[in-house]
Amino acid sequence: MPNPHIPVITIDGPTASGKGTVAQRVAQHLGFHYLDSGALYRLTALSVIRRDTPLDDEHALAKAAEHLHCHFNGAHIFLANEDVSNAIRAEEVGNLASKIAAIPTVRQALFGLQLSFRQHPGLVADGRDMGTVIFPHAGLKVFLTASVEARAERRYKQLIDKGFSANMEDLSKDLAERDARDSNRSSAPLKAAEGAYLLDTSAMTADQAVEQVLRWYAATKPI
Ligand code: CDP
């Protein structure tokens, strides 16, 4: 049973806002565990693609999420025993992840797995609903945003670095569609949690964003 007294920092935000990089660095700095909740939706999507699960069969999609045989080892993510760290970053996988993430039974199937990441000495969790649904009592909640242009550029660099092909026009369109889907769904829509600090990183480096989150975290602790 995850301990409710273990500190949690939630970092939510739209696609390609840089929250993954910021969350990982904050976790590293504090010696905390890190939950990339988006990776769980991406892993479910990859498993669905690999097994040819019919996309209109909600029950089968929820089962795929419930029986996700995944594990994390540092920056490496495994599905069954295959290292899929790169494969899950493909845009095709991200787009399907965003579609199946709108299904409440899929979200429910991943609920307990996400809670289990709350381990000593603490957790930094990044996603869309970390502060609103999964860890609503987190000690620090951050909502990280950036302009569509800054996000498209970051995603472009990320994809090229991973050896995928990409073009800015398609990416900007993808981002806008993903934003609309994530924000307008009825189950756990993307929005800032109550009490979340807003951080617009359009004109910030990742290090500046990390420093700001660490300052906020230091201020949450009693002297
Ligand atoms: O990398 P990017 O920010 O585009 O996406 P991600 O964080 O890897 O998440 C992939 C998809 O999973 C998102 O587009 C969301 O629709 C969904 N997701 C979610 O619904 N709830 C979360 N806590 C995390 C991700």
Number of domains: 1
In the CATH classification, which architecture applies? 3-Layer(aba) Sandwich
Largest sheet, in brief, is: 5 strands, parallel
Helix/strand order, N-terminal first: EHEHHEEEHHHEHEHHEH
Which cofactors or ions or other ligands sit in this model?
Answer: cytidine-5'-diphosphate
Could you say which overall geometry the principal axes of the C-alpha atoms support?
globular
CATH top level? Answer: Alpha Beta
User: Order of strands across the widest beta sheet?
Assistant: 2-6-1-7-8
SSE-based structural type: alpha/beta
Counted beta strands: 8
CATH topology: Rossmann fold
Helix count, DSSP H or I runs of 4 or more residues: 10
| Strand composition percent | 15-25%
Give the fraction of residues assigned to helices. 40-55%
Give the oligomer, counting copies of the same chain as homo and different chains as hetero: single chain
Q: How confident overall, as mean pLDDT?
A: 93
- Rg calc: 17 Å
Distance between the termini: 29 Å
Please explain how this structure is put together:
There is one protein chain. This protein is α/β, with parallel strands linked by helices and 223 residues long. It has one domain (8-213): P-loop containing nucleotide triphosphate hydrolases (Rossmann fold). The chain has helices spanning 19-30, 37-51, 58-66, 91-100, 104-109, 111-115, 130-134, 148-161, 168-184, 206-220; strands at residues 8-12, 33-36, 70-73, 76-79, 82-83, 123-127, 140-145, 197-200. It has a 5-stranded parallel sheet. Strands 3-4-5 form a 3-stranded antiparallel sheet, covered by helices on one side. Helix 2 (37-51) packs across helix 4 (91-100). The longest helix has 17 residues, at 168-184. The chain is globular, with a radius of gyration of 17 Å. Residues 15-16, 37-38, 41-42, 94, 97-98, 101, 127-129, 178, 182 line the site of cytidine-5'-diphosphate.
